[in-house]
Every structure is written in structure tokens, then in C-alpha cells.
Write a structure and sequence with these properties.
The chain is α/β, with parallel strands linked by helices and 378 residues long. The protein contains 13 helices and 14 strands. Strand 3, helix 4 and strand 4 form a beta-alpha-beta unit. The structure holds 4'-deoxy-4'-aminopyridoxal-5'-phosphate.
Amino acid sequence: MKRKYLMTPGPSPVPAFVRESLSREIMHHRTDEFREILQHAHEGLKYVFCTKNPVLIFSSSGTGAMEATVSSLFSPGDKVISIAGGKFGQRWTELAKAYQLDVVEMTIDWGNAPDPERLKSLLEQHAAVKGVLTTLCETSTGTVYDVEALAKTARKAGALIVVDAVSGLGQDKLPTDEWGVDAVVSGSQKGLMLPPGLAFVSVNANAQTAMKNAQCSRYYLNLQKALASYAKSDTPFTPAVSLVVGLKEALRTMQEERMESRWVRFETMAAATRKAAQALGLKLFSSRPSASLTAIRAPEGIKSTDIVRTLRKNYGISIAAGQGDVKEKIFRIAHMGWINEQDLMMTFSLLEKVLRSLGHTFENGVSLACLQEVLYGK
Ligand code: PMP
């Protein structure tokens, strides 16, 4: 059996100390022992989300928390602007439509970030917009959005701002309260260093007011139910107990490192990755690249899916191909969660080998020299 290396933008690697905590004997969730763990997790989540407000936990993947947010904050017929510059922005649009919201689509070319001025003019054009749905890091394109400016624009127009930070949280800067973001959604399997299975939503006072008036039909994925239980350090349904135990451990290391240091560390890894890719003669896909992952165009005449397949088959290293129309055109390397500098060194050393075997030419070792320079100094 080959050793496997996850360099994908979710799921991402789970450290040994978290895996160990996941294997502890299962406990009952209606006990003081579990409630204490949940309280620690709630406090840790507040720290990582940079908020003083509740962060609610769902036993689902990230999309479950996106769905809970749409159905719990809005009513059928409510007008929302959905910013879609990739697969996950499109998911907001699809979800909002599924709940019969009146969706104004702000579509942008994949690889680009939304212009806050365009959002401003859309908000002027459309009266009574209740919410703006957007993304911190659009994983399908490796693009980070200017959430600070988008939030400011939405707030001025009296609309709620809802941000999908499923892949960005932990790496891309998001001071939720400082930027006035009403609801932030995330998931366990990326920056938070856990297996898939938990999702989170932070809710500020505006979001909590909206929840009281929202009329969309909902039952299990319900922010109001989750908030009522949260107040009692409880969950409305049986939670994924082991994952919550692991969450407490993962959050502890994030608290120890501090968010400000993490944002700098991951941006340095991202800068190193971009420089290494460019040194190989490759072009970046995004005009506003994220600190969480880097999307790279495959060389002319080579399919990105072949690069991904060969790297996995020969060396056990998983990176991601593109999604949608750019499936075969780009490949994506994650630098999130537990992935570190040495992982990037290993990935690029074998990526060089794979690219050469597929016919792409460049100076041997050039990407590694770039990584060494940016990550470890000259
Ligand atoms: N939003 C973003 C930005 C994501 O990267 C993902 C997962 N790739 C999701 C939403 C959906 O999360 P999940 O697959 O956990 O439902």
C-alpha cells in the first residue's frame, strides 16, 4: 500500500493528534462531559471566526450549513443578490432558487473577483434587496473576494451579507465582526483539519433578527433550532460526537498559533506556490489569488486531469483538477489546514517529474529553488 498525501482543497489532511482524539471511546451527548467539550468548541469557533456571536454547529457537509442559512434567514419571494464567479457562488444561486427566493445573479468570469462598485449599482437598481450571498475563497478558481468592501456595500443598502468561507476560513483573512459580516458559513474538512462531517454558521444580531421573521419551510437544517440549543450548550439533534471531540483539539492549535499569524503564514505559502508555478513557465488562473489554494493553468497541449492522475497514481499525491468548464484546463494545489511548507516542497519536486514526463520543459529544480527562497530564506 502506498502512502497518500492530500494536497487537495478539501478534504485536507487530519493531524495525528486530531485522529487520536477521534478514536476515543464514544460518549453520550446529553452529559456534562460532552457539554463541556461543546462549550470549548463554541469558544474556539468564536475565536477562529473572529466573532463574539454564536457559531452554530451542524452535522453535515458545508452545503448543509449553506442550506440552513438560506432557509433560516429568508422568506420565499425575498430578493437576494447571489455573486457567482465559480462553482460555489453558483451553489448559492441554486440554493436560493430552490427556496423560491427572487435571485438577482451577479455573474462574473471564473478566475475574477467581484467588483464592489458593480454590487453597489445592482443594489441601487433593485429595491429592497434582503441579502447578498457571496464567498470568501471561491475554491473552483482559487480566488479570494474583497469581503470587507462587499460587506460595507451591502450594509449601506440595508442588506444582510452572508459569506461562504468553507475553504477560506483559517487561511484567508476574515475578521467577521470587524467587517460586519452577518453570517459566515464553514466546514470541517479544510482549514479546520478535521474529516468531512461538520459545518458551522456564525450569526450576528442582524442575522438573529432575520431568523425570527424568515418564512422558508425548514426542519432539520434550521439556524433557529440550533441557536436555541446553543444557549444551553446543547445541540437539537444527535451531533457527530467524535467530530466535535476532534474539533476541540483542532481549534486549540489554531488558538495557540493565533489567526493573525496564520493569515501571514498561509499567504507566504501561497506566494511561494505562485512563484514556483510561474518559474515552471505556468500561468496562474486567478486575478486575485487566495491564501488557501492556488489554481494553475496546465501547459498548452497537456490536460490538467492527466497531471492530477499521474501524480496520484505514481506518487500517491492528490491535487485537484478544475471544475466545470475548466476541468481539464487547470489544476489546484491546496495550502490550507495542516498542509505545511515541506508538503509543498515534496509536491513540487514530484510535480516537476510529472510535468516533464508529459512533455513540458523547464530548468530542473527551478520551482524548488523558488519555494526554498520564499519559505526558508536564501
Ligand atoms: N463552498 C466552498 C467554497 C467549498 O469549497 C465547498 C467544498 N468544496 C463547499 C462550499 C461545499 O462544501 P461541502 O462539499 O462540504 O458540502
